[in-house]
Amino acid sequence: MDKEQRTEIETIGEFGLIDLISKNTSLKHPGSLKGIGDDAAVLGPTDLVRVVTTDMLLEGVHFDLSYTPIKHLGFKAVAVNVSDVAAMNAIPTQVTISIALSNRFSVEAVETFYEGVNLAAEHYNVDVIGGDTTASRSGLVISVTAIGEAKKEQISYRSGAKANDIICVTGDLGGAFMGLQVLEREKQVFLSDPNMQPKLNAYPYITGRQLRPDARMDIIHELRELDLVPSSMMDISDGLASELFHICKASDVGVAIYEDKLPMDKQTYDTAIEFNLDPITCVLNGGEDYELLFTIDQKDFPKLEKHPDIHFIGHVTAPDEGKVLITKSQTAVALKAQGWKHF
Ligand code: ADP
Ligand code: MG
C-alpha cells in the first residue's frame, strides 16, 4: 500500500469513491449500452449465448496482503473470472466488481486496485459495467462477475469428453503452488525478523504465477481460428488431478495420463526439490495455475500437433478403466484427486 499519501475513504465518501472508480473506465463493447452510473447496467441483444460466472476472493483465505501487491490483486480478480469464461470456450465481454473495504484501506489503495482491474479489462477486452462498494469489518472481500458470449455450438462443457479423445493442457503446471510456498516462507522469515528482506528475486517465474496469473484467452482465440471446439474443457484452478476427476464424473469416462508428458517449468521443479516436495505431486495437485485442460477428438490432433504451448498428456478411456497415471517406469497407478490437504 502507498505509504506516501493516505486519504481516508470517509473524506470522499462512498459516492466520491465510485466517481473515482468510474472515471477511468470506458465502454468498448457495442453490447454495453449502459455501464456504471445507474441502478443497473444495460446490455444489448445478441444472437450468441451468454455465459456468466462469479468468483469471490477473501483476504486471509485467498490472498495475503502482506505479500500481494494490490495492483496485482485487481488484475488477478478479473483474470480468474475471465479464465472461467475461457474454460467455456467463450469470449468475455463485461465484468462487475464488488468490494468490501475495511478502514485499513485508503482511497489511494482503492485507486491502485482499480489500476490493476483496468489493466486486466484492457488486456482481456472487457468492459467494467458496475459493481458494489461497501464497508467490511474484517478484511478485504472482492467479488467479480464476468459475462461472456459464444455461438451455442462453440460452448465446451465438462460433460463432452468421449473415450479415445486426446487430453490437452496449456502452459505448465505447479508453478503457482510453488510460488505460494516461497511467498509463505519469506513471510515467516520476515515475521520472525523484520530486518530480513524477503528473497524473492530467485523465484520470479513462480511468484509471478501466483500473484499475477494470466487467463489463456490467447488459446481460445487460436482454437477459433483453427475452427476447433474442444469436446470438453475446464480451467485448472484446483489442480490437474482434481479437474480431471470433474471431467470424468461429468462425462462418465476414465482417463490415462502419462507422467513424462506433464508440463513443468524448471523453476517449479527446482523449488519443489528445495522444499522436499515431489515435483509430480505439485504438478498434479498444485492449484491456481489458470491454464486450460481440454479434450479433443483424434481427428483434430493435426491442427494442434505443432502448437508450442499445448501438451498432450494422455487420453480418455472407458469409465471402467478408471483414472490412472502411467509412471515413467510404465506402471499404472490410480490417480488421486489430492496429494495433500490444503485445509
Ligand atoms: P445502488 O445503491 O443501486 O447499489 P451504488 O451507489 O452502489 O448503487 O452504485 C452506483 C453505480 O456505481 C452503479 O452503476 C454500480 O454498478 C456502480 N458501482 C458501485 N460500486 C462499484 C465498484 N466497486 N466498481 C464498479 N462499479 C461500481
Ligand atoms: Mg450498491
TrEMBL record:
The keyword Transmembrane does not apply. It catalyses: thiamine phosphate + ATP = thiamine diphosphate + ADP. Keywords: ATP-binding, Kinase, Magnesium, Metal-binding, Nucleotide-binding, Thiamine biosynthesis, Transferase. Residues 37-149 form the PurM-like N-terminal domain. Mg(2+) 3 binds at residues 39, 84, 235. Its EC number is 2.7.4.16. Mg(2+) 4 binds at residues 39, 53, 84. Pathway: Cofactor biosynthesis; thiamine diphosphate biosynthesis; thiamine diphosphate from thiamine phosphate: step 1/1. Substrate binds at residues 62, 288, 340. GO terms for molecular function: thiamine-phosphate kinase activity. ATP binds at residues 114, 131-132, 158, 237. Coiled coil: none annotated. It is an enzyme of class 2 (transferase). Mg(2+) 5 binds at residue 238. CDD domains: ThiL. Reaction mechanism of ThiL seems to utilize a direct, inline transfer of the gamma-phosphate of ATP to TMP rather than a phosphorylated enzyme intermediate. Catalyzes the ATP-dependent phosphorylation of thiamine-monophosphate (TMP) to form thiamine-pyrophosphate (TPP), the active form of vitamin B1. Belongs to the thiamine-monophosphate kinase family. HAMAP family: TMP_kinase. This is Thiamine-monophosphate kinase. It comes from Cyclobacterium jeungdonense.
